[in-house]
From TrEMBL:
One GO CC term, this protein: cytosol
Residue intervals of the Glycosyl hydrolase family domain: 295-756
Designated name of the protein: Glycoside hydrolase family 92 protein
Glycosyl hydrolase family 92 N-terminal domain boundaries: 35-288
Keywords, ordered alphabetically: Hydrolase, Signal
Pfam families in the cross-refs: Glyco_hydro_92, Glyco_hydro_92N
InterPro entries noted in UniProt: 6-hairpin_glycosidase_sf, GH-type_carb-bd, GH92_a_mannosidase_put, GH92_N, Glyco_hydro_92, PNGase
GO biological process terms on file: carbohydrate metabolic process; glycoprotein catabolic process
Source organism: Sphingomonas panacisoli
MF terms in GO: carbohydrate binding; peptide-N4-(N-acetyl-beta-glucosaminyl)asparagine amidase activity
Signal peptide: 1-26
């Protein structure tokens, strides 16, 4: 599964009459052991190295700075940043690769000795608080496991996680008393007053429970915990460090101290005492958005000690990752398997073991026959993350996703689908109604397990909710006017794509009236495209294009979302043929694509735009609007240019170091792009049922499909010099088109590439060989 030499080693030695010893056999790596969770933890990747199960509710990971405030939290959006020298503690919840910070719930930190500080202290001053220094040389991270030695208390800290629980194991020296500091005040994206309320209670059986409400990125988010210890709790001290007046009907901040069993307030911290220990201390924690009883039930639903939970989670990861059998050089195997690992963290489970969850209306609901999931970064993940799940996960995963989106719509005060939701709460971040293509893509691929009519009704409701993002004007004018709505150019084209997916699904369902309405709207991208200049531009309500206009200006006048005209002038993935005609044909389109990649940005300053990273000219791989652009050469009859650009992107934007992601992973989208691209194809227009062929970056890969079949990709002659595709064969027959269908993959078989040092300029160039376009070519 990894390097071909290692893979063949047992057979080679057996042929020589030798038998591998257990130690030698252990060197044959598995997909799980190829995963390096440190990839993306430095630079702009915003990933975390801690323990998580596939799609787990808990992401137990170290926080190197949980005291950052508002936008200063951007570099620490995942809690951990590889460049930091100290760890403040270990908290239960984290985003993987988000461009915004939040979570970091229920922070725990071990302290050894008689003096137990209850404040984190200054990162620049050792010993000033419970924060500790650490060395990367002491860290270990793998799928489902994390460990580090904390220098100041001299404690070895280990983390593992199940689906709804996290388990911490601390090995203290025997010469000093062992303590834990449990801080309910800290949270990523901190600011004064973020914690609206919190509570902690020591129950008669030794279980510690409580919860809190935070007002951060998602307002009014409630989360509860229940924890048990492997050793008796010998003493405790519950403190409320708040000096303000009581809040929300509390009788008061409560009497702090070691002789009370329950405390409420907005600034709670606890000291937990265990005395001198002759064995490691295990702390098992369950969480729930519902209530303390839900957290207790979740805690009980996954029995076993640290080692048992770790073994179960590692087995689950091995199964999930082994869906791909990749053969490539060691660096590529590490990056591809780590990318798949990152792509399988979300959408995360939210419903409790009994099916209950807290919805966007802040009420308790119960998932009937499915697992409710959340963490929907839909503006990012509709592109490749969700299409990838339809190939590498059982259909029940996508069915859960669709049913969760529909359930969220039913509980929404506005009656629309999620935009950017986590832990069941809506943030209204980013633009579009991109739950729509996720649902449509699933339906059009034949996914079952959800009510299609209910789903389509939810899609139409979202696309016709006039108060949202200028939709009222979009429906009447045919575009979003910039003098009434910010980011209008981007919104117009993103709405048009989403509308096309509604039309596709409605037509297949026979709901022709809906199909006709949204087929018309799918062409609205043209209404913001200035054919005279060749740019997507923002228009005013009177029909004029806004001036002055600079296609290189990022967020120029708020016309675009996290980008400029260079990126957004290509966003009509469902109608690239229509765009090619407006640009003047194939040659003009290829020239403009080349100009984008070759643009000299040395005189432009994008340093203050947080999401603009990974530049290749005006192509910005660190942000999603560019992700399909390299594949667009194939629509213009020049697939060899796609192949060369993909080589340029993969070589410069990904590696197997902490700086291995050029931009935020965005809940798996950057990683899903790499998985698809490494296999040799990419879903440019989810909902089309097609994947545009690029070029592979692995020697061989087999996808173990959910239906039990196998789809194998083979690259003959793969090397750095052979960056072009000389020929392609599908199931032994020459393939002269530049796309695959989802059905072809699902039927199983073999896609074979013959790589070449020189481009094949005749392959896949005629009109009939090109991918789908709504208005043809």
């Amino acid at each position: 599964m990894l390097s071909q030499t290692l893979r063949r080693l047992p057979a080679i030695l057996a042929g020589l009459g030798l038998i591998l010893s257990p130690i030698a056999d252990a060197a044959v790596l598995t997909p799980m052991k190829a995963v390096d969770p440190f990839i993306g933890t430095g630079g702009e990747g915003h990933t975390f190295p801690g323990a998580v199960a596939p799609f787990g509710m808990v992401q137990l990971s170290p926080d190197t700075d949980a005291e950052c405030v508002i936008r200063k939290c951007y570099p620490h959006a995942a809690g951990y940043r590889y460049e930091d020298p100290t760890i403040q503690g270990f908290s239960m919840t984290h985003f993987s690769g988000a461009g915004h910070s939040d979570l970091g719930d229920f922070l725990m930190m071990p302290v050894a000795g008689d003096a137990v500080p209850l404040e984190p202290g200054d990162a620049a001053k050792a010993g000033s608080g419970y924060r500790s220094r650490f060395s990367h040389s002491s860290e270990i991270a793998s799928a489902g496991y994390y460990a580090v030695t904390l220098t100041d208390p001299g404690v070895r800290a280990e983390m593992t996680a199940g689906t709804r629980i996290g388990v911490q194991r601390y090995t203290f020296g025997r010469d000093k008393p062992a303590h834990l500091v449990f801080d309910l005040r800290t949270s990523l994206y901190n600011y004064p007053g973020k914690v609206s309320w919190s509570s902690i209670r020591l129950r008669a059986d030794g279980t510690l429970t409580g919860g809190r409400e935070t007002r951060g990125w998602a307002p009014g988010r409630k989360l509860f915990f229940a924890m048990r210890f492997s050793r008796p709790l010998l003493g405790h001290d519950f403190r409320n460090t708040e000096t303000d007046v009581p809040y929300k009907g509390f009788k008061g901040p409560g009497r702090s101290g070691s002789d009370i069993a329950e405390l409420k307030g907005r600034a709670l911290v606890a000291r937990l005492d265990f005395g001198r220990l002759d064995a490691p201390l295990e702390v098992k924690v369950g969480i729930s958005t519902v209530d303390e009883d839900g957290a207790i039930a979740n805690l009980s639903s996954e029995p076993g000690n640290f080692d048992a939970i770790r073994a179960k989670t590692e087995s689950t990861w091995e199964t999930a990752l082994s869906v791909l059998d990749v053969q490539a050089d060691a660096k590529t195997e590490r990056t591809v398997y780590t990318a798949l690992y990152h792509a399988l963290m979300a959408p995360s489970v939210l419903s409790d073991a009994d099916g209950r969850y807290r919805g966007p209306d802040d009420q308790i609901h119960k998932a009937d026959g499915f697992t409710f999931r959340s963490t929907f970064s839909l503006w990012d993940t509709f592109r490749a993350e969700h299409p990838l799940l339809t190939i590498v996960q059982p259909p029940s995963t996508t069915s859960d996703v669709v049913r969760s989106l529909i359930a969220s719509r039913e509980a929404s005060p506005y009656g629309i689908l999620p935009v950017w939701q986590f832990q069941g709460q809506e943030t209204w971040t980013m633009i579009g109604y991109h739950a729509v293509p996720v649902i449509a893509d699933a339906y059009l691929k034949g996914m079952k397990g959800f009510d299609a009519n209910k789903a389509l009704d939810a899609m139409v409701a979202s696309a016709t909710y006039a108060p949202y993002g200028g939709l009222g004007d979009y429906m009447t004018l045919g575009y979003v006017p910039i003098d009434r709505e910010p980011e209008a150019a981007s919104k117009t084209v993103e709405y048009a794509y989403d509308d096309w997916t509604i039309a596709r699904m409605a037509r297949k369902m026979g709901r022709l009236d809906v199909a006709a309405t949204f087929e018309k709207r799918a062409a609205y991208w043209r209404n913001s495209f200035d054919a005279k200049t060749g740019w997507l531009r923002a228009r005013k309500a009177d029909g004029s294009f806004r001036v002055p206009f600079d296609p290189t200006a990022i967020n120029y006048g708020s016309d675009y979302t996290e980008g400029n005209a260079w990126q957004y002038s290509w966003f009509m993935p469902h109608d690239q043929g229509g765009l090619i005609k407006l640009l003047g044909g194939d040659a003009a389109t290829v020239a403009k694509l080349d100009a984008m990649f070759d643009f000299d940005t040395s005189k432009l300053d994008y340093s203050k735009s947080e999401d603009i990273a990974g530049l290749i000219g005006q192509y910005i791989h660190g942000n999603e609007p560019s992700h399909h652009v390299a594949y667009l050469y194939a629509f213009a009859g020049a697939p060899w240019r796609t192949q060369a650009r993909l080589k340029q992107i993969v070589d410069s934007q990904y590696n197997d170091t902490p700086q291995g992601l050029s931009g935020n992973d965005d809940i798996g989208q950057m990683s899903a792009w790499l998985v698809f691209t490494s296999l040799g194809f990419y879903p440019v227009a989810p909902g089309s049922g097609q994947y545009v062929i690029g070029r592979p970056f692995v020697d061989r890969a087999t996808i173990k499909l959910p239906n039990g079949k196998r789809f194998t990709i083979v690259a003959n002659g793969m090397s750095d010099a052979n960056k072009y595709v000389g020929a392609v064969a599908l199931n032994g027959k020459p393939l002269d088109r530049v796309y695959l269908t989802h059905d072809e993959i699902e039927r199983g078989g073999e896609l074979r590439f013959t790589m070449s040092a020189t481009p094949n300029k005749s392959w896949g160039t005629n009109l009939a060989s090109r991918p789908y376009s709504m208005s043809g070519y």
